[in-house]
Specification:
Shape of chain B: globular
Strand content of chain B: under 5%
Oligomer: heterodimer
Shape of chain A: globular
Strand order of the largest sheet of chain A: 5-4-16-15-14-6-7
Number of strands of chain A: 39
Radius of gyration of chain B: 23 Å
Number of helices of chain A: 39
Largest interface: A-B, 60 and 55 residues
CATH topology of the largest domain in chain A: Alpha-Beta Plaits
Radius of gyration of chain A: 29 Å
Strand content of chain A: 15-25%
Helix content of chain A: 25-40%
Distance between the termini of chain B: 10 Å
Number of domains of chain A: 6
Chain lengths: 1067, 459
C-alpha cells in the first residue's frame, strides 16, 4: 500500500494551501464589525507609512485590502463598510441554521475578500518548474502518521492528493490500528477543513499575530523565572508524547515551582485509580483478546471505547468467526448499565445498575475464591444465577479468559477486576501490565482541583491552557471559570475559538495533527511519529511550539523539537526515515511488567464495592462520553453529528436515556398522549412498549442535589432499570456554526464527586416536549421489531443449533431465490463484484458509515433534514430489537446498496441513469439523472439517497480541498447511492491493465471494508473460486436480504450466531 | 351568412334533453349571447380570484425551481407525494370529457350534446394542470423536460423504454393532442357562428381566423362529420389507455400496494368516476348562472349521477378485491400493507376514502337525490375529495412502510405542496372562466339538431 518511500520532510510539505481568500475570512475590519465593538483607536489616526508597513508585515496569508484606510483600520473606514454593505455587515451577526452553514461559509468567503464582485476568480494552472519526485498528478500518495484521542495514538495512513490530505486509513503496521480506524479518526479530515476553525491569533478577542504575541510574553515569563515559576501553570489534556514530556521537563528546570496539570473530561480516571489501588503504582493494562475464550465485561464498551479498542475489536471478531460447523467461538458476557455496541454482541447480556455491577463482580470474585474478595451487596436472583454461571465458566477457562472493567467505572471495580484476572492466571496470556504509556501519570481530578484552588487564591499569574476546553468541560463544582478570571495572564491554544478562549487574553490557533509535527504512543507504548501532510491552513501552532516559549527554546519549530528528542534516542538518518515511513518506531512497545495485586488495596476496593448502594431515589445517573462527539471536542464536526448513535439511532442531540420500566415506575407518560401516538395494531405487551416508548422527547428536569438540568427523555430498550444516562459534549456555546447550541450541556450536573455516576437523582416532567431526530422511527419499535422478525431480516441462531443443523439459516428463508425474469440475464464472464457482511462480527460502531462519507463526498444535511427522512448516508446501520423490552437482543445490520442482479431500480428509470454494468454493479450516472425518484420507490432496500436540496457546498474552496477528487460532487435533484467504491475498482482496473494481469483478490478494498475494525466486510470477485468473498458466500450461514423478491443481491450477509452458556439458557 | 344544419339527426327522443319552447334561433341566441352579452361583474371578480390563485401557483413553481424538491414534504422512503397524487387526480378528472365526447357519441347518446363542449374543455384544462406535475416533480426539471423525449441525441442516448414513466410521456402527450384536436374540431362550426354574429372587428377577425373559413357547405359538413367520427374513434381507446398507463407507474413497481393486476381497470373506473363528479361540479353552477336549465336539464344531471354511481360501484369493487387479495395471496408484505392501511398511522385517510368513494355515492340510488342539483353537487364534492384520498393512500401508505422496517417513515405535504395543488385549481378555473367568456360553452350546432321542432333548412 505504501509503495512510495519518502524522505523525512521534503515531500510531505505540499505547496502552500490554495486558500488565500479564506485566510482573510475574518479580516481585521470584519472582525471588529462582527463583535460589535468600537475600534480601539477611535479618533481617526493619521495615515503613516510605518503603521501600514507594520500591519502588512504582521498579516499572514494573502490579504485583500481595498485602500490604505482599511489597512490603517480607521474608524471612518469601518463606517464606510457599514454604509456600503449594510446587509452583508448585518449578516455576520446572524446565527445560521446548521444545515445552511456550509452555504453561508461559502458566501462568507466571497464577502471576506470584499473583492466579491467576481463570482469566479481567475485561476491559473501553473506547472511545476521543478517536478517533485513521486508526485504524479491524479495519483494519491500515502503517508504514515498518527491520530490521538485522550493522548493515545492510533496509526493512520493519510491519503494525499497533490498535497491535500483527503482520507485517513488505518496503518496495518500500527498495533492499535492493524489497518482499521474508528469513526472519529475518519472524521478528522472534516475537522481539518472545518471552515469554523480559529484562523488567527486573538488578543482580547481581536485579531493579532504570532509576531505580536511572542515579545509580549517575554516580560511575564522573566518575572516568573525570577519567582521560580511559582505562579506559572500549564493545563493540557493527557499526553503520551515523549517530545512534550521532554519539553515539560525543560520547563520544570527553568521554572521549578511551576505545575503541569493534565485533565481529560472523558479521561481514564477509573483505570488510573484502579491501577493505583490494586498495584500501588501507575500501571497500564492491555488485553489480548485473541487468546480469550471467555470474556466478561463489567460496564465496558470494550470494542468501541478506550485505547486499543480498534485492535480489540479485530481480535474479538477473529475469535468468533464461525463459518463452518467445526469452528470455535468465544463467549462474551456483558454486564452493563446502558446498552453498548459490545453488549449487542454478547452471548449473555445483563442490564444492572452500576452499584449492582460492583456486587456482581464481587460475587464472581468470591465464587472464584479471589483473595481479598468476598461477596457483598445485593443481587437479584437472575444476576446471582448469572454470576455463579460466569464464575464457573471463567474457572473452566483459567488463563484463557479475561475480565474487563469499563473505562468509566470506579477505581474499585478496576481493582477487583485486576484481582480476578490475576487469580485466574490471565496475566501474561490475555492480560498484560506495562509501565504507564501516558507521559506523566497523575490523579487528574485532584490536580485540577488544586489548580482551581490556586487560581482562586490568586497564586497563579500565568496560565497556559493547551488543547483543552476546561471552561466547558471542567467539573461544575470546581468553579473553574470564576477562578480563571483571577489569573493575570491566560493563553489558550485550540483548534477553535471556543468557550475557554473567550476567557483568555490570548488565543493561538492550533495546528491540526495533519498540519504539524509531533509524536505519540499507542495503548501498548509503541511510538509513532506524527508527521504533517499540509502546511497549517491558518498558521496554527503545535503544542510543542507553545511550550517552547517556556522551555527557553522559542522559535524552534515542532520538527526541530521532535528531531532533538529522537536524536537522543538515536533515531536519526535511516532509522528515522524508517520510523516515518512505517508510522511506528520499531520495538518501542512498553515491556510487560510483573505486578501483583496488593491484598490490602483489593480488600479495600472490595469493601467499597460492597458498600456501594443505589441511592434513596432508586435512580443512578451515569455520564458517558458521546459515542460520536466524545467530550465535545468533535461538536463542530458534521459527519460525527450526523452519524446515528448506536442503539438509539439519534442524531444531532443528546438525551436522557431511560429504560421503559423506569418510565413506567416514574409515570413519565401521560395517558392523553399515549392514545394519539399508539398505533392501533399493537396489543398486549407491544401496546405497553409503544406507550412507554412514546415518552421519548418529553422534557424532564433532572436534579442531583442542588444542580438541575432540563433535557429530553429517550426511552431505550435494554437500559438498566433505574439508570439514567447522559452523554457529554453537547450544548456547546462556542464551537462554530455546526456545533454551537446543539443538544444539551450536561457538564453543569457533573461534579468531581460524581464524575461518572451520581446517586440521589430526581426526575420530573416539565410538560414541554422537544423534537429529537433519529434515522429510525422511535415510537414504532414494537411494530418494527415484530415485522423484522417475521421477515427474517437479521437471521440468528445459536452455535449449538448451527452445529446440529448446518442449514438452519437457509431454512429460515421463505422461498428459493426466484430465478425467472422477464429480462434476459447477464453473462458476467469477467469479474463479478460482490460483498459479504458478517453480522457475527459487526459491532455497529459506525466507522464504515463515516468512512463511506469521507470517501464518497457525502454531504451533511442537518438535524431538521434528518428528521424529515433525508439523511444521505450511502451505508446505514439498521437496528432491530428482538425479545424482551427490558433486555432485548439488539441486532445491527449494515446496509449498503445490494447491487441486485435483477435490480428493480434499473428497469424503472426513464432516462437510463441507473444501468447495469458487465461486472454486476448498478451504476449510477449522476449526469444523466433527472431525479424522478422512481428508482428509490422501487428499491426494496431503500438504499438510494436523493439530493432534495443543494446539500453539497460547492463554493467554499477550503471545504472543497477535503473532497475526494475521484468522486463526483452531486448536484441538487440527483439520486445517489453506494457504488461499491467504484472509483477504487476503476483505479485497480487501470493498474491491472497497465501491468497486463487480472486484479488480484484483496487488491480492491471498499472504504467500509478498509475501515472495519472487526473485518466484518469482504469485497471481491465472486467469479473467482479462490476469492475470500466467494468463500464467505459459500458458507452455510450466507443469506440474502429479502431473497424471496428475486432481486438476487450481490451483497449478502452471514448470519449472526450466539454461543450461550447452556446453564443460563432458560427454557 | 347562415350555417346549415348537420345531416345527422332525426333521433326520436323519448325524454326531452332540451327545454320546451326552443327553436334554432333561441338556442343560438342564448348560447352565443353568453359570449356576446355584457360581461357580468361577477365574472371579473371570479377571474381575478382564480388568476390570483394561479399567481400563487407560479410563485410556488419559481420557489421550487430555485430551492429544490426539498421544499415539499418528500423523503426517503416516501419519494413520491403530492405531485404524483395531483397528477393522477387531474388526469383522472380529464377522462369524463373524453368519455362524453367520444364514447357517448359513438353510442349515439345524444343527451351528451349539451355537456360535451365544456366537458372537453374540462379535459383539456385538467390535462394541462396534470401536465405541470410530472415535470416539476423531478429533481432537475430543466433536463427532464426533454431528456424524457426520444430525440436524436448526439451521444446516441435514448430514453429507457422499459420504464412506465416513458410510457406515461407518450400516453399523456397523445391524450393531450387528441383531446385538443377533438375539442377544436368540434368548435369550428360554432366559431363560424360566432364570427357571423360578432359585432366588433376584432371579434370577426379572431373568430374568423379560428373558424378556418367554415362556410357550412355540404362538402364541409361531410368532411367535418367524417373527421369528427374518426377523432371519436381515436379518442375511445385513449379513455382506457391513458389511465391504464398511469396505473402502470404503480403496478409495474414491486412495492406491496402498487404491484397489483387489478390496477388498470380499477384506475380507469376511478378516472371516469372522478371525471363525472367534476363535470357535475361545473355543470350545476353553470346552468344556474347562465340560465341554461333548458339545455342542461335535470335529465342530464340524472344521467351523470347514474354514471357516477356505476363507476363508484366499480371502484368499490376494486377496493374489495385489493382487500381480498392482500390476505388471499398469502404474501406477508401485502398483508402487512393492507393491515397498515386499515390500522396504521394513515387509517383516518383510508376510512375517509371508503366513506367518500364507496359509501357516499350509494345515496344516488334514490331518484330524488339523483335529480336534485344541490344534492348532486354535494356528492360530487365528496367524490372529488375521495378520489384524491385514493391516490394519497396508494402513493403514500404503500411507500411509507415497505419491506425493511428500518427505513419506514412518515409523510405530510408542506405549504408548498398545498400551494402548488391549490394553485393548479387556479389555473383550471382561470382557463375555464376564459373559456366560458370567449367560446360557446355548449355546442350550438349540435343543440340545434336536438331541438324537438327543428326544421330542415335555413335559420
Amino acid at each position: 500500500m505504501k509503495d512510495h518511500h519518502h524522505d523525512d520532510r521534503g515531500n510531505t510539505r505540499s505547496e502552500p494551501p490554495q486558500s488565500g481568500g479564506s485566510s482573510s475570512m475574518r479580516g481585521p475590519g470584519l472582525r471588529v464589525l462582527a463583535s460589535g465593538e468600537a475600534p480601539a483607536d477611535s479618533p481617526r489616526k493619521k495615515l503613516d507609512l510605518e503603521t501600514v508597513k507594520k500591519r502588512l508585515a504582521q498579516e499572514s496569508g494573502r490579504q485583500f485590502w481595498r485602500s490604505l484606510d482599511e489597512l490603517s483600520q480607521g474608524q471612518d473606514f469601518q463606517e464606510l463598510i457599514h454604509r456600503e454593505f449594510p446587509r452583508q455587515a448585518a449578516e455576520w451577526d446572524d446565527s445560521v441554521s446548521r444545515r445552511g452553514f456550509l452555504q453561508v461559509a461559502g458566501a462568507g468567503l466571497a464577502l471576506a475578500g470584499l473583492t466579491g464582485c467576481t463570482r469566479q476568480p481567475a485561476e491559473r494552472l501553473v506547472p511545476y518548474v521543478r517536478q517533485p519526485e513521486e508526485i504524479i498528478p491524479g495519483r494519491p500518495l500515502q503517508f504514515a502518521t498518527a491520530a490521538t484521542l485522550g493522548g493515545y495514538a492510533t496509526g493512520v495512513l493519510a491519503e494525499s492528493h497533490m498535497g491535500r490530505p483527503t482520507k485517513l486509513e488505518g496503518n496495518p503496521e500500527h498495533p492499535a490500528s492493524l489497518g482499521a480506524t474508528d469513526l472519529k479518526i475518519q472524521a478528522e479530515i472534516l475537522s481539518l477543513y472545518d471552515p469554523d476553525r480559529s484562523k488567527s491569533v486573538l488578543h482580547l478577542g481581536r485579531v493579532s499575530t504570532w509576531e505580536a504575541l511572542t515579545p509580549q510574553w517575554e516580560a511575564p515569563l522573566k518575572a516568573q523565572e525570577a519567582l521560580g515559576g511559582e505562579g506559572l501553570r500549564i493545563l493540557s489534556g493527557v499526553t503520551t508524547s515523549p517530545t512534550l514530556a521532554r519539553q515539560m521537563a525543560k520547563v520544570q528546570e527553568r521554572f521549578p515551582k511551576s505545575r503541569w496539570v493534565q485533565f481529560e473530561a472523558a479521561g481514564r480516571h477509573g483505570a488510573e485509580g484502579g491501577a493505583r489501588l490494586a498495584f500501588g503504582e501507575a500501571v497500564e493494562t492491555r488485553f489480548d483478546l485473541s487468546k480469550a475464550q471467555v470474556i466478561l465485561t463489567l460496564d465496558a464498551d470494550l470494542l468501541c471505547e478506550g485505547p486499543g479498542h480498534v485492535r480489540y475489536a479485530k481480535e474479538f471478531a477473529a475469535g468468533r468467526r464461525v463459518h463452518e460447523t467445526g469452528d470455535k467461538m468465544s463467549r462474551l458476557y456483558s454486564i452493563e448499565s446502558s446498552p453498548t455496541n459490545t453488549g449487542t454482541l454478547a452471548d449473555h447480556r445483563l442490564p444492572l445498575q452500576p452499584a449492582h455491577i460492583g456486587h456482581f463482580a464481587l460475587a464472581v470474585g468470591a465464587a472464584l475464591g479471589v483473595p481479598g474478595v468476598s461477596s457483598g451487596g445485593s443481587l437479584n436472583p437472575e444476576a446471582a444465577a448469572m454470576a455463579a454461571a460466569v464464575a464457573k465458566d471463567l474457572a473452566e477457562h483459567r488463563g484463557s479468559c479475561v475480565v474487563v472493567a469499563g473505562e468509566y467505572t470506579s477505581p474499585a471495580l478496576h481493582a477487583v477486576a485486576h484481582a480476578i484476572n490475576a487469580a485466574l492466571g490471565n496475566v501474561g496470556s490475555t492480560v498484560f501490565h506495562t509501565e504507564p504509556v501516558v507521559a506523566e501519570p497523575a490523579n487528574q481530578v485532584e490536580d485540577l482541583r488544586e489548580l482551581v484552588a490556586d487560581m482562586s487564591a490568586g497564586r497563579v499569574q500565568v496560565l497556559l491552557i493547551l488543547d483543552s476546553n476546561p471552561v466547558f468541560s471542567a467539573p461544575a463544582d470546581l468553579g473553574f471559570t470564576e477562578a480563571l478570571e483571577s489569573v493575570g495572564l491566560r493563553l489558550h491554544l485550540g483548534l477553535h475559538d471556543d468557550e475557554t478562549s473567550e476567557y483568555c487574553h490570548w488565543h493561538v490557533p492550533m495546528a491540526h495533527f495533519l498540519e504539524g509535527w509531533s509524536d505519540a504512543r499507542a495503548f501498548d507504548g509503541t511510538v509513532s511519529l506524527v508527521q504533517p501532510l499540509i502546511e497549517p491552513l491558518y498558521g496554527g501552532k503545535t503544542i510543542h511550539e507553545i511550550v517552547a516559549l517556556l522551555s527557553g527554546a522559542p522559535g524552534l519549530s515542532a520538527y526541530e523539537l521532535l528531531e532533538k528528542t529522537w536524536k537522543e534516542a538515536d533515531l536519526t538518518g535511516t532509522s528515522w526515515r524508517r520510523a516515518l515511513h512505517d508510522g511506528v518506531v520499531a520495538d518501542s512497545a512498553a515491556p510487560t511488567q510483573a505486578v501483583t495485586p496488593d491484598g490490602a488495596g483489593v480488600t479495600a476496593a472490595a469493601a467499597e464495592l460492597a458498600g456501594a448502594a443505589v441511592g434513596g431515589s432508586d435512580l443512578t445517573l451515569t455520564f458517558r462520553p458521546d459515542p460520536s462527539i466524545h467530550d465535545g471536542r468533535y461538536a463542530n464536526n458534521g459527519w460525527l453529528q450526523e452519524v446515528p448513535k448506536p442503539i438509539t439511532r439519534m442524531v444531532w442531540d443528546n438525551a436522557l436515556l431511560i429504560s421503559p420500566a423506569t418510565v413506567e415506575k416514574l409515570q413519565l407518560v401521560d395517558p392523553g398522549m399515549e392514545a394519539s401516538l399508539l398505533p392501533r395494531q399493537l396489543k398486549g405487551a407491544a401496546a405497553r412498549a409503544g406507550r412507554l416508548l412514546s415518552a421519548s422527547g418529553k422534557m424532564v428536569r433532572v436534579s442531583v442535589g442542588e444542580r438541575t438540568l432540563e433535557v429530553p427523555l429517550w426511552v431505550v430498550p435494554g437500559q438498566a432499570e433505574g439508570v439514567l444516562t447522559l452523554h457529554l459534549g453537547y450544548g456547546r456555546r462556542r464551537s462554530g456554526k455546526v456545533g454551537t447550541g446543539v443538544g444539551f450541556d450536561v457538564y453543569p450536573l457533573r461534579t468531581t464527586e460524581a464524575l461518572w455516576q451520581a446517586e440521589e437523582v430526581q426526575v420530573e416532567l416539565t410538560g414541554a416536549t422537544y423534537e429529537l431526530s433519529s434515522t429510525q422511527l422511535h415510537h414504532n419499535i414494537p411494530v418494527e421489531s415484530r415485522e423484522a422478525e417475521r421477515r427474517h431480516l437479521v437471521r440468528t441462531a445459536t452455535l449449538e443449533d448451527f452445529v446440529k443443523d448446518r442449514d438452519v439459516i437457509h431454512e429460515m428463508g421463505h422461498a428459493e431465490m426466484a430465478e425467472e425474469s422477464l429480462y434476459p440475464g447477464w453473462p458476467y464472464d469477467d469479474y463479478a463484484w460482490g460483498l459479504a457482511i458478517d453480522l457475527n462480527s459487526c459491532l455497529g460502531c459506525n466507522a464504515c458509515v463515516v468512512a463511506c462519507q469521507a470517501e464518497n463526498n457525502i454531504p451533511v444535511v442537518g438535524k431538521e433534514q434528518v428528521g424529515k427522512g433525508r439523511e444521505m448516508h450511502w451505508l446505514r446501520i439498521d437496528r432491530y430489537f428482538a425479545g424482551d423490552l427490558e433486555n432485548p437482543e439488539v441486532h445491527q445490520q449494515p446496509v449498503p446498496c445490494m447491487q441486485c442482479e435483477q435490480a428493480p431500480c434499473e428497469t424503472v428509470c426513464p432516462v437510463a441513469a441507473t444501468v447495469h454494468n458487465e461486472h454486476g454493479l448498478n451504476d449510477m450516472v449522476y449526469n444523466r439523472c433527472v431525479g424522478t425518484r422512481y428508482c428509490s420507490n422501487n428499491c426494496p432496500y431503500k438504499v438510494r439517497r436523493f439530493n432534495f436540496l443543494k446539500f453539497n457546498d460547492t463554493d467554499d474552496p477550503v471545504v472543497a480541498m477535503g473532497r475526494n477528487p475521484d468522486v463526483t460532487v452531486r448536484f441538487r435533484g440527483v439520486m445517489e447511492k453506494c457504488t461499491y467504491c467504484v472509483q477504487r475498482i476503476a483505479a485497480a482496473k487501470i493498474d491491472s491493465k497497465v501491468a497486463g494481469r487480472r486484479i488480484k483478490d484483496g487488491e480492491i478494498v471498499t472504504a467500509c471494508q478498509q475501515v472495519c475494525p472487526s473485518d466484518a466486510i469482504v469485497f471481491g470477485d465472486i467469479n473467482d473460486p479462490e476469492a475470500k468473498v466467494r468463500k464467505w458466500k459459500d458458507q452455510p450461514l450466507n443469506y440474502a436480504l429479502l431473497e424471496e423478491l428475486g432481486t438476487r443481491p450481490r451483497t449478502t450477509y452471514l448470519a449472526k450466531l450466539r454461543n450461550p452458556n447452556s446453564e443460563l439458557e432458560r427454557s | 351568412m347562415a350555417t346549415t344544419e348537420p345531416t345527422q339527426g332525426g333521433n326520436s327522443l323519448s325524454v326531452p334533453v332540451v327545454g320546451p319552447g326552443h327553436d334554432n334561433v333561441t338556442v343560438t341566441d342564448q348560447i352565443s349571447g353568453v359570449v356576446f352579452g355584457k360581461t357580468p361583474l361577477w365574472w371579473f371578480v371570479a377571474l381575478a380570484i382564480s388568476a390570483g390563485v394561479l399567481m400563487m401557483m407560479l410563485y410556488a413553481i419559481v420557489f421550487l425551481l430555485f430551492t429544490g424538491t426539498g421544499v415539499w414534504g418528500l423523503n426517503i422512503p416516501v419519494a413520491w407525494g403530492f405531485a404524483i397524487i395531483n397528477f393522477v387526480w387531474w388526469i383522472g378528472i380529464g377522462h369524463a370529457g373524453t368519455l362524453i365526447s367520444a364514447i357517448l357519441l359513438l353510442l349515439n347518446q345524444n343527451w351528451r350534446t349539451s355537456i360535451n363542449r365544456f366537458a372537453e374543455a374540462m379535459t383539456l384544462f385538467a390535462v394541462a394542470c396534470a401536465g405541470i406535475f410530472p415535470i416539476l416533480h423531478t429533481g432537475r426539471p430543466w433536463l427532464a423536460v426533454y431528456w424524457l423525449l426520444p430525440y436524436p441525441n448526439t451521444m446516441g442516448l435514448w430514453p429507457q423504454f422499459r420504464s412506465p414513466l416513458i410510457w406515461d410521456v407518450f400516453a399523456v402527450s397523445t391524450y393531450l393532442t387528441i383531446s385538443l384536436l377533438f375539442w377544436y374540431v368540434g368548435l369550428i362550426p360554432d366559431l363560424a357562428t360566432m364570427r357571423d354574429r360578432a359585432k366588433t372587428y376584432a371579434g370577426q377577425k379572431i373568430y374568423g381566423l379560428f373558424s378556418l373559413g367554415w362556410r357550412g357547405s355540404a362538402k364541409h359538413w361531410h368532411n367535418y362529420e367524417s373527421l369528427y367520427l374518426l377523432l371519436a374513434g381515436i379518442s375511445t381507446p385513449l379513455v382506457l389507455s391513458v389511465h391504464t398507463v398511469v396505473s402502470f407507474d404503480f403496478s409495474v413497481g414491486q412495492l406491496p400496494g402498487w404491484h397489483a393486476t387489478i390496477f388498470p381497470p380499477y384506475f380507469v373506473a376511478g378516472a371516469i368516476y372522478a371525471g363525472f363528479a367534476m363535470v357535475l361540479l361545473l355543470a350545476i353552477p353553470l346552468r344556474k348562472i347562465f340560465h341554461l336549465e333548458d339545455f342542461i336539464t335535470i335529465k342530464h344531471l340524472e344521467n351523470m349521477g347514474i354514471v357516477t354511481l356505476a363507476t363508484g360501484m366499480m371502484v368499490a369493487y376494486g377496493y374489495m378485491v385489493e382487500l381480498f387479495m392482500a390476505f388471499y395471496s398469502g404474501n406477508q408484505y401485502e398483508e402487512f400493507m393492507m393491515l397498515n392501511r386499515i390500522t396504521g398511522p394513515y387509517q383516518m385517510q383510508w376510512w375517509s376514502l371508503l366513506l367518500c368513494n364507496a359509501l357516499a355515492p350509494q345515496v344516488l340510488w334514490v331518484k330524488r337525490i339523483r335529480t336534485s342539483p344541490a344534492a348532486l353537487f354535494v356528492v360530487a364534492i365528496i367524490v372529488s375529495i375521495g378520489m384524491w384520498l385514493e391516490r394519497f393512500i396508494i402513493v403514500v401508505t404503500s411507500l411509507h412502510r415497505d419491506f425493511l422496517p428500518s427505513s419506514w417513515g412518515m409523510y405530510a405535504g408542506t405549504k408548498w405542496d398545498w400551494a402548488l395543488y391549490i394553485g393548479t385549481m387556479g389555473l383550471f378555473l382561470t382557463l375555464f372562466f376564459l373559456f366560458i367568456r370567449f367560446v360557446p360553452m355548449i355546442s350550438i350546432f349540435e343543440m340545434r339538431t336536438i331541438v324537438p321542432d327543428s326544421r330542415k333548412g335555413e335559420v
